[in-house]
Amino acid sequence: MKQIYKIVTIGAFALLSAGISKADELLDSTKVHVAFRTVEDMNLLGGVSAVDVEKLMEKDYSTYSLSDMQALVGGYNGQLWNQGNALVLVDGVPREATNILPSEIAQITFLKSAQAVVLYGSRGAHGVILITTKRGNEKGLQVSVRGNAQLYVPKSYPKYLGSAEYATLYNEALVNDGIEIPAFSQEDIYNYSAGTNPFRYPDINFFSDEYLKKNYMRYDATAEFRGGGKYARYYANVGLYNNSDLIKFGEGKDNHTTRLHVRGNIDLKLNDWISGWVNTSASFYDDRKDRSNFWAESAVLRPTNPGADPLVPLIPISAIDPSDQSAWAYINNSNYIVDGKYLLGGTQQYATNPFAGMYAAGHNTYTSRQFQFDLGLDIDLARVLPGLSFRAQYAVDYATSYNTAIINDYATYRATWDNALGYDMISGITKYNLDKSTATQTVSDSKDIQTIAFNASFNYNRTFGDAHNFHAMLLANGYQVSTSGEYHRVSNANLGLNLEYDYMNKYYAQLSGAAIHSAKLAPGHRNAFSPTATLGWRISQEDWLSDVDWLNDLKLTASYGVINQDIDIEKYYMYADIFTSTGTWWGWSETNNSMQTTDSQRGGNPDLGFVKRKEFNAGLNTVLFNGLIGINANFFNIDTNDQLTIASSTYPNYFQTYWPVSDLRPYINYNNQRRTGFDFGVNIAKEVGDFGLGLGVNGMYNKTKNLRINETVEYDWLRQTGAAVDALRGYECLGFFADENDVATSAKINNNTRPGDLKYKDQNGDGVIDSKDQVVLGKWGAPFCMGVNFTAKWKNFTLFVAGTGSFGGMGVKNDTYNWVYGDRKYSEVVRGRWTPETAATATYPRLTTQGGELNFVTSDFWTFSTDAFYLDKVQLTYDLPSSLFRDKFVKGLQVYVNGNSLATISKERKQLERAVGAAPQCRVYTLGVKVDF
Questions:
Q1: How many C-beta atoms lie closer than 10 Å to residue 265's C-beta?
Q2: For tag attachment on the chain, is the N or C end more exposed, with fewer CB atoms within 10 Å?
């Protein structure tokens, strides 16, 4: 019989070792965690991918559990097969991926197909991500210590106009709106441009080095302990990290985040037939931040504002008239004198503002504490029936979070300037608010979450005649998450049955099913059964392929399943009638007699049922040329049927009235969607002497379609049925209105339209631009996403590179940086504004101080391609020769440098990398060392 070669479903052979892993290692050397058990990777039946994180960390250090996974796993782009948020399980318990670090993880398994997730019941219907933590061993005490210093460098900041240019263009916007009186005089504009007195003529720039550092640091240290013997094995992980902030003034300079975590995993062998485990974890997280709202205000607060006394962050005391007794009284009684030289600036409009708030508003600390505990028991029941075993697990997690804050009120001051003596002097001070400092902490937003999980299963594994392999599982599974302040718990409960047979690892058959329960539906409709069936064929073991030397392994799989689920049922009691006793007021007679009616707000539907995931998938896994090339691919067709919708087109329109406000229409199971696509991984691994190369290319293509939508539309282009689920809709832009005649003779949104406004296509020819003229402009999501990983190894050096890309999606430039109107802050995009002189070359609508309903609505004028390739990671690692540590206390030493989020290759790079109203995206550079003892 032909030798069986390792099938690596993770998208890169290189993941299975710290260096380059050959694909011709025997399959029984790798176990993969799947639903409630582990299997040999040779026996996986499609729609499952796994990453050996422990070995990956030897060449790819990261700080988030799912970092770089798109570069390593086909079918994953933050979602699995584009189905929505997956269920994340840590050691079999629903937990957050953000609360576990890669240093704690042994393996991550991505369960994508219906047959892979069905045993998790309803909550697994969008896919499952299994995170398995490290365990102890029988090799005696092993200690590993890792330390890292990370430098965070902002990629870019939004580019806003300075005061002089803003003032000039704001005056132009007023003229465009028919207002001839300028907000800024020419003298004002000159003084803003000259910059001779920034305290009188401010030019506020949030991103100047006066307020921000060029970079900030993060430091972390982790110690791991593992070992044990025949009857007990242990693993422990203790780590601490701290990072600072870009802001360097006021309370912001003390911003920081600190997290301490402790994990302990113990495996016990009580005797030859009973074993168990205990896992514990605790994390202590504190995030201290100023209360200024600095980053959000950076997208709002203009460099100056109209009026004689604009906002100035600081007022120089030295410029105040020494004879102004009232002003000096304010100074002498102020709680906040910055550097002994400045009062906090403000105006009536900006009596509180981010700069004064940074100095005086106090600070807030978000605190999170998470404690996780689970234990399990394995009992070998071979004495009862050979091959029979029992496993049970119970978990209790507690998480609490709250905010503690020092909240101060503060006074700000507006300066009145004159230059009667030939130089600028502050002749008067106006005070807003009062200084009220407190040393008392306030506690708010307290939240407690408890998770209780339990599962138990009887398992039967038996091989007959060295050829017939049977596996059976009978399972009970459930968990419940309780959140303070929320009446209903998040619950999942199901029974499961799994039956598998394979003949000599050649022919496979699997039947799985789950009996699920949901309290979201009416009594009598709360239970359902979800079946799946899978077939597999290792075709490479057929005699007629035995002489094909270049084909080491080839396996085909096919599966069909139906999963009933309630995760797409948003709320409880959606099947029930809703009435309000505070309905419409009715009156009669001349004596003003009146009463308030009881009105129906929604009709009931006791027959409301589960949403169904109906899936067919087919898979291929192959290894070629003695492990040189590996290929895995999966085709999937997923119909999400019977989604809930208000039956707007099913019932007569008089079932809904606007006066009285009443609605008799119920929710029904109606809408159907389809997701069709494929994922793939192509991997090459080769070693020659001291040199090795590994290359993995992974990707996913998918398209979506609304098969059926409950809708009534007047025109075909408005129809959602047949369109993409994530269709982007808006107006088709025809350019700018050229002149008044063009405005008068064209369809428009309203009569405020002027030359320089955007002109849209009147799709239905009714002479009015409204929602009936919106068409499909593209798709929000990218149909194709991919990842690349590359490993090069020479002697003790290892180079690892990871990148990801997405193609075919669209976005809309609808943030405040691009949509500038009214009193919004002006960014550099407005330099391309339409004017009569620039009509032929304009790239932006006319400026306006009015609303944005004419130009700043979704249209293809604002859409852009989100096509991009991201260079996510480059790491160079050096392992000192082992000969240096022979018979030494230190057993190994590794040093590495890496860069994260290094480059974006896209025509829209600036748009994709720009953070508006938030802290900037950063490139991250790491210097790390790992020492083994």
A1: 23
A2: N
3-state SS class at 882 = helix
- Give the HSE-up count for residue 281: Cα atoms under 13 Å, Cβ half-sphere: 27
Cα–Cα distance measured from residue 579 to residue 342, given in angstroms and rounded to the nearest whole number:
60
Rg of the chain over CA atoms, in angstroms?
33
Distance CA 216, CA 652 (A): 62
What's the pLDDT score for residue 419? 84
786: helix, coil or strand? strand
The rounded distance, in Å, linking the Cα atoms of 274 and 814 is 61
- HSE-CB for 254 with a 13 A CA cutoff: 12
Whole-number Å distance between alpha carbons of 747 and 650: 34
Short-list 931, 756, 733, 905, CA closest to 845: 756
Distance CA 316, CA 304 (A): 18
- Beta carbons of 635 and 35 less than 8 angstroms apart: no
Q: Give the C-alpha separation, 607 to 274, whole Å.
A: 47
* DSSP output for 525-579: SSEEEEEEEEEEEEGGGSGGGTT-TTEEEEEEEEEEEEEEE-TT--STTTTS-EE
Q: Is 142 within 8 Å of 227 (Cβ atoms)?
A: yes
For 821-866, the pLDDT digits (tens) are 999 999 999 999 999 999 999 999 999 999 999 999 999 999 999 9
d(CA 210, CA 226): 49
Distance of CA 733 to the CA centre of its chain: 32
pLDDT of 14 over the 60 cut? no
Q: Which residues contact 770 (CB under 8 A, 6 or more apart)?
A: 749
Q: Which has the closest alpha carbon to 114: 42, 46, 38?
A: 46
Q: How far apart are CA 356 and CA 333, in angstroms?
A: 17
Lowest-confidence range among 388-402, 474-488, 507-521, 592-606? 592-606
Residues in the chain: 933
